[in-house]
Amino acid sequence: MARAKRHYLPGHAWHITHRCHEREFLLRFGRDRRRWMQWLFESRKRYGLCILNFMATSNHIHLLVFDRGEREVIPRSMQLIAGRTGQEYNLRKMRKGAFWEDRYHATAVETNQHLIKCLVYMDLNMVRAGVVSHPQEWDESGYQEIQQPRQRYTLIDHHCLMDLLGVPSMDVLQRSHREWVEEALSNETSARESKWSESIAVGSKGFVARVRNQLGFRAKGRKIIEMPQECQLREIQFPYSAISGVENGILSSQNQHFWEIYP
Asked: What predicted TM-score, i.e. pTM, was given to this entire model?
C-alpha cells in the first residue's frame, strides 16, 4: 500500500481516530489504555500538542487536538504515542506484528457548534458501544478531566478549549459540558455518526469550501456533501468499510491522508 502524502493545513481543530490492527481489542485492559494516556501526556510535554479531548476504548482511540501552526507537532506526537504504545505492549506480551492500523484518520472540525458536537460525540463513545450508561463511568476519557481537572499530568488544554468554545471560565465550561452531554443522552443522540471518521472536514459550507481550497489539487475526487445543519467534505469513491459494526470498522486507507505517522 502506497503511503499517503502529508497535507499540512494549520489553524484547525482535528478529530483523529486510530484503530488497533484488524480490529483487535488490544486496549481492552485499563493498564494499556492508561499507558496510551501517559504517552499522550508525554507528547504534550515534549512537542506541545494541544489536546482538547480524548477517548481510549478497547480497540481504538479518539483524539481532538488544535493545530497552532507548528508543522511537525501532530505527526511527531502521533508517531510517539502510537509507536511507544505498540512497542511496550508487544514487548510485555511477547507479541510480534502491527499494533495499529497503518495510518490514523483526521477530520478538520469547524470551531463552533460543530466542535461541541464532536466533543460530545467522543464523550459518548462507550455509551454507543453499550459498555457504560454515562461517560463519567469510563475513566480513560476527557470527560473526566474536564469535569474533574487533574492537579498533575493534565492532558487537556482547558484554556484553549474555552477560547475555541467561547466560554469565559472553567465553571461555565464544566456546566455547559455536562448540559451538552445530558441533552444528547436524553435525546438518544448517541448513535454512531460516520462523518467523524469518514469526512475530511465537517462544518459550515464556507468552512468546508476553505478546506477544499487549501487542499488544492489534492482535493480532486472529494465532494462537498450538504446536509440540513452542516456540510461535509467526503472521499465518496472510497466509502467506510461495509463490514464495520458499532465503532469497530476499518478506516478506508484512501481517506487517511493528512499526516504520515511513520517516516
From this structure: 0.86
Cell of 251: 478506516
The amino acid that residue 73 corresponds to is V
Residue listed under C-alpha cell 468552512: 207
Q: By three-state DSSP, how is residue 232 classified? A: strand
Say which residues have a Cβ less than 8 Å from residue 220's Cβ, sequence separation at least 6.
Answer: none
> To which residue does cell 445543519 refer?
229
Q: What is the pairing mode between strands 60-66 and 105-109? A: unpaired
Q: What is the mean pLDDT of the chain?
A: 86
Residue 65's φ and ψ, nearest 5 degrees, are -130, 160
Count Cβ atoms below 10 Å from residue 90 Cβ, excluding itself: 15
The three cell numbers of residue 188 are 438518544
Q: Which residues contact 151 (CB under 8 A, 6 or more apart)?
A: none
The residue with cell 499494533 is 99
Q: From the DSSP assignment, how many helices (H) and strands (E) are in the chain? A: 9, 7
